[in-house]
Design goal:
The protein is of the alpha+beta class. It folds into 6 domains: about 170 residues, Galactose-binding domain-like (Jelly Rolls, Sandwich), CATH 2.60.120.260; about 90 residues, Immunoglobulin-like (Sandwich); about 140 residues, Glycosidases (TIM Barrel, Alpha-Beta Barrel), CATH 3.20.20.80; about 160 residues, Glycosidases (TIM Barrel); about 100 residues, Immunoglobulin-like (Sandwich), CATH 2.60.40; about 90 residues, Immunoglobulins (Immunoglobulin-like), CATH 2.60.40.10. The protein is about 20% helix and about 35% strand. The longest helix is centred in the C-terminal third of the chain and has 23 residues. The two termini are about 50 Å apart. It comes from Williamsia limnetica.
């Protein structure tokens, strides 16, 4: 397939022309754009995009009949060939195929003003959406990105948000792959040329393992089955291998299509009023983020960027993303990379907060069918939801059950999922368990969107009272990007909190008198007992660093609670994965796709093998050891507690065995054999310890570590923190040591990525971090280390003497 190129673009006032020929001299002002794209991608200002009509046009020629495949064109739109309308686009989420005879032709696409379309009077819904002022959007099958204030980011997509391609008449289409994990059987169906021999070959790691052949019927349709002996199962990240198979479709022994698939089962657990995911009959603690991205280009550069972003999340221990209604369906590149990285995908139908009119229900069904058939066989698909806050919205407006019921969500869409996929269906995100009278907004039942810690300003201990069962969204904060990113996009931290370009990147709810930077400031005050306004006024860099640390503190506290076996929580997804514009957005990754500090902190509690240390008051220090993997974990669990002078006041260890896909729990007295009040809960005199460090060692190496700071020592400007880099058997390591405990130590080395970052240090206890080179790495590491308790950076010292391992 080849892309259709050579486009030109012109904008006009609404209704200026009904056909391309009526534009006349207006084409003289057209912009030459080459590859098809959206209007916002090539305009300096996005203000008038929905106010104007837009026309795209190009010339094309072919010696044989061809099909033009519009993989994604925004709606409403009309496609013209040689000035004649040939297709109407009703949904931006459905592909459009246009037949073109041999010869030279003019291809035009008209995208009328959305503002004008919304001005048309139509029946009102049973309730109003809080996301957007234009309630007529419930009639239009297009994205809310760029239109709803909460979706901060690029301009509204108008035009081609996915490629426009030439497709040969004989090209394969409608290919569906359905593997069955229990038997290894794979059913493949599709359409190619009529009365054609078709062969499907299945391979695993470049070795063919099954093959079957069939003839297509008079319409070109075929259905064939092949059986893979002893199929390898695909697992989410950390729970096992990501075993992927390739199915190749051949016609006359020529490969015409190739796609990946995997064997796995996905079921939901709902029997006790909650919601959980089981993959291959193993309970999964889902952690990750909500993925919002308006455009997924297919070029190699964009795919590399996407690979890097998902790689950062996977390396941090994420095993699920959710694609929310109101945004866009993901392209094939994201689905393939999720399967490769072991990241499950929760897929919402593209519907958010509106009361969907019956007239668009058929389109919603077709969209869902198309998505599920396109991703058939991809093992990453885990859950399908009927929409985003579509049940919660009328609930929060006080409507009774009869007024807010949507048949589409409760009867029609679940039937589509049952036919087209092998995954659980949820009526909406959030929603109560099916058959329950609970409200969707309740966190302790079914699926919730939980912002108790966050937008509702609840104290951090509220996470232990809320009883969250599965949070499909949670923990939304305006997260500052790294100091380097702040410098790159804003020339320094002095813009923080007030400059217009900075505030444009801060998420806010429509109509609210506050934004999520105010939320962050609230938790800075709560966690660190400082006035964030005064800190920002005097030291803006420190203001942002305290903000990063307060968010990390909140997120780690929540996940440390949720991941426990006795919490009854089966998963939580941060809102969101990545910023869509520069500034302090919700994303764990910034607009450039680089990790922010809270993701570094989360990586320790998200890791497949993890240790957490938390204060349980009078019960002492609780230690949880997690093993998501498929094999038993055997090692040594060590506890070290140090006081304000860096001297050890407790030092103990014990052998530990953790069975596959499970965890074990200890308290400090289980290791030390005595009462020492390490958590300082009884308060008998001065605190025994400033910090408690727990670590899990296997084969002599630390594989997981956590530090509980019991008695913070803020503003340790004179602490003796040292950072020494040295080479061992060709690899670089950074050794950090201090005599006093330090919170949120951050390593910044150009071209080097530390294996751990944004962590606590216990006084008197050395910590060794491996340094991994990436793009732009120098021969030797060079940079600084700082902490919120030692915020003046210290330089890394390089020890040139290489050591043996």
């Amino acid at each position: 397939m080849t892309s259709v190129s050579g486009w030109r673009l012109v904008g006009t006032e609404p209704g200026a022309a009904a056909t391309p020929g009526e534009l006349g001299a207006r084409w003289d002002d057209a912009v030459q754009i080459g590859e098809a794209t959206t209007v916002g991608a090539i305009r300096d200002s996005a203000e008038a995009i929905d106010a104007l009509d837009w026309w795209f046009q190009t010339s094309l020629s072919s010696s044989a009949p061809r099909t033009i495949a519009f993989e994604g064109v925004t709606a409403p739109a009309t496609v013209f060939i040689d000035g004649q309308p040939v297709a109407a686009v009703e949904s931006m989420f459905l592909p459009v195929l246009v037949h073109v005879p041999a010869g030279r032709h003019q291809l035009s696409v008209h995208l009328p003003s959305l503002d004008r379309a919304l001005a048309k009077r139509r029946p009102r819904g049973r309730w109003r959406s809080s996301l957007i002022a234009a309630q007529g959007m419930r009639w239009v099958r297009t994205s809310l990105i760029g239109r709803a204030p909460i979706y901060q980011g690029p301009p509204a997509p108008v035009g081609f948000w996915r490629p426009v391609r030439f497709v040969p008449e004989s090209a394969p289409r409608e290919i569906v792959v359905r593997p069955v994990a229990a038997s290894g059987r794979v059913d493949i169906a599709g359409v190619v040329s009529p009365d054609t021999p078709v062969t499907v070959a299945i391979s695993y790691r470049a070795r063919e393992v099954a093959r079957a052949s069939v003839h297509t019927d008079a319409t070109g349709r075929y259905r064939v089955a092949a059986t893979v002996p002893d199929p390898h199962l695909w697992w989410p990240r950390g729970y096992g291998d990501q075993s992927l198979y390739t199915v190749t479709t051949l016609v006359d022994e020529t490969a015409i299509d190739q796609r990946i698939f995997g064997f796995r089962t996905v079921t939901a657990t709902t029997s006790d009023g909650g919601f959980g995911i089981r993959v291959n009959d193993v309970a999964i603690f889902a952690r990750g983020a909500v993925w919002m991205d308006p455009v997924q280009d297919a070029d190699s550069q964009a795919t590399d960027s996407l690979r890097r972003q998902l790689g950062h999340l996977a390396d941090a221990g994420a095993n699920m993303i959710r694609i929310p209604g109101g945004t866009t369906y993901a392209g094939p590149e994201l689905w393939a990379l999720c399967a490769e990285h072991g990241i499950l995908v929760w897929q919402d139908v593209m519907q958010a907060t509106f009361d969907p009119p019956e007239e668009v229900c058929d389109l919603l069904v077709k969209e869902l069918q198309d998505v599920l058939r396109t991703v058939s066989g991809n093992p990453a698909l885990a859950v399908v939801s009927g929409g985003n806050e579509t049940i919660q919205q009328p609930e929060m407006l006080g409507l009774d059950p009869a007024q807010r019921r949507i048949e589409l969500l409760h009867t029609i869409l679940p039937t589509v999922v049952a036919v087209e996929a092998d995954v659980p269906y949820v009526p909406a995100s959030p929603s109560a368990p099916v058959g329950s009278d609970d409200l969707a907004i309740r966190p302790d039942s079914g699926v919730s969107h939980w912002f108790g810690v966050g937008g509702y300003l609840r104290p951090l201990p509220d996470v232990q009272r809320a009883g969250v069962r599965f949070a499909a969204e949670c923990l939304a904060f305006a997260i500052p990007p790294s100091p380097a990113a702040v410098d790159r996009h804003f020339s320094g931290a002095r813009v923080a909190g007030h400059a217009p370009d900075w505030k444009t990147g801060v998420p806010r709810d429509r109509g609210s008198s506050w934004d999520f930077e105010d939320v962050r400031d609230h938790y800075v005050s709560e966690v660190f007992a400082v006035n964030p306004f005064l800190v920002r006024r005097l030291a803006p860099d420190r203001y942002l660093q305290l903000g990063r640390a307060a968010i990390a503190e909140a997120m780690v506290a929540c996940y440390s609670c949720w991941r426990r076996e006795d919490s009854r929580c089966d998963g939580a997804l941060v809102l969101s994965a990545r910023d869509l514009r520069p500034g302090p957005g919700w994303g764990l990754l910034d607009v450039d796709g680089d990790p922010k500090a809270p993701l570094d902190a989360l990586s320790r509690v998200w890791a497949p093998i993890a240790v957490t240390a938390t204060s349980e008051g009078l019960s002492g220090v609780r230690i949880d050891v997690y093993n998501d993997g498929p094999t038993p974990l055997a090692g040594t669990l060590a506890l070290i507690a140090t006081n304000s002078s860096g001297h050890r006041v407790a030092d103990a260890d014990t052998a530990v065995v953790v069975e596959p896909h499970s965890s074990v729990t200890f308290h400090d007295a289980d290791l030390t054999g005595r009462f020492t009040d390490l958590a300082h809960a009884y308060g008998f005199g001065a605190a025994v310890a400033d910090a408690v460090e727990v670590s899990l060692r296997m084969d002599g190496a630390v594989v997981a570590r956590d530090v509980l700071i019991v008695t913070p020592r803020p503003e340790q400007a004179r602490s003796d923190l040292t950072a020494t880099a040295n080479q061992v058997a060709g690899d670089w390591y950074l050794t950090l040591q201090t005599s006093v405990c330090l919170r949120y130590v951050q390593i910044a080395l150009a071209g080097w990525r530390p294996s751990d970052n944004f962590f606590h240090l216990a006084g008197g206890s050395a910590y060794v971090v491996r340094l991994v080179p990436h793009d732009g790495a120098r021969e030797q590491p060079s940079g600084t280390v700082t902490s919120i308790d030692h915020h003046l950076p210290i330089r890394v010292v390089v020890d040139d003497q290489e050591r043996e391992s």
